[in-house]
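Duplicate of #3305? Posting structure anyway:
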């Protein structure tokens, strides 16, 4: 009987040893999913490897775009990241259950369309080398270029806080208070404090438009031809306003041509149109 038990034990060990090897080969803890790639314009990579639509994005994944590339990612809570060209963004953490999101923009620009945070302790935070941006639920763009962070708030509220030390007017170094942006406002953070301190300013329409167009990633994976926005010529709200103004101006000029004093038509003596 002892020989039978010993033989059985050896057989069991032999059978389960491959399974033990498989278990030990699994990553400790496993990767935690943060979202997926929705669309991209080559060249764009995930963790220095070529990526494509529907690829999964995990915690600590690095999204990087070349001069011709862009990438749009959807997070698991419904938030959307639109990364412009020449940019590098790390998805440090994104937990939809606890509503904890942490991102790091090394350089370049990214538009953030953030789902409302409703849970106590929830946060959505984006860091650049010299600023941290915190939101509750909003639509904003952040860009880090030339040692400056530019933040544009399209909708909602954005709290921007300088990181490290900035030089005040007196020449002394020290940290400064944060600034809160609302719809249509922007701020630029550098290593020098402006004379009046950090203050939000109104975003010029062309700057707002440039930010949106510079991070637009159509589903087809290619930019529309010049003069046509995402969804057609009238598909972009900022462009619609600008085009509408140009059309109105053109109509006014057209109506003014051929009108004499008081808006009367001066007829061509040869019977032609107004001259």
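Output from current build:
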């Amino acid at each position: 009987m002892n020989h039978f038990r010993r033989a059985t034990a050896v057989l069991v060990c032999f059978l389960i040893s491959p399974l033990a090897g498989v278990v030990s080969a699994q990553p400790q803890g496993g990767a935690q999913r943060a979202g997926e790639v929705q669309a991209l314009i080559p060249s764009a990579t995930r963790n220095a490897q070529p990526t494509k639509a529907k690829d999964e994005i995990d915690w600590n994944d690095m999204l990087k775009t070349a001069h011709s590339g862009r990438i749009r990612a959807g997070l698991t809570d419904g938030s959307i990241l639109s990364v412009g060209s020449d940019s590098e963004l790390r998805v440090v953490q994104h937990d939809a259950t606890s509503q904890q999101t942490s991102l790091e923009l090394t350089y370049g620009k990214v538009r953030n369309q953030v789902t409302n945070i409703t849970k106590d302790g929830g946060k959505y935070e984006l860091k650049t080398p010299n600023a941290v941006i915190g939101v509750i639920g909003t639509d904003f763009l952040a860009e880090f270029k030339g040692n400056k962070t530019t933040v544009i708030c399209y909708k909602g509220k954005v709290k921007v806080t300088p990181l490290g030390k900035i030089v005040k007017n007196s020449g002394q170094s020290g940290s400064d208070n944060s600034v809160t942006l609302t719809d249509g406002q922007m701020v630029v953070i550098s290593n020098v404090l402006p004379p009046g301190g950090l203050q939000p300013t109104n975003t010029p329409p062309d700057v707002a438009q440039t930010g949106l167009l510079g991070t637009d990633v159509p589903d087809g994976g290619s930019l529309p031809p010049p003069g046509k926005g995402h969804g057609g010529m009238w598909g972009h709200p900022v462009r619609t306003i600008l085009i509408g103004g140009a059309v109105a101006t053109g109509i006014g000029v057209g109506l003014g041509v051929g009108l004499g004093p008081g808006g009367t038509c001066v007829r061509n003596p040869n019977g032609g149109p107004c001259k």
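Confirmed duplicate; merging threads. The two ends are 120 Å apart (CA to CA). Residues 224-275 form one domain.
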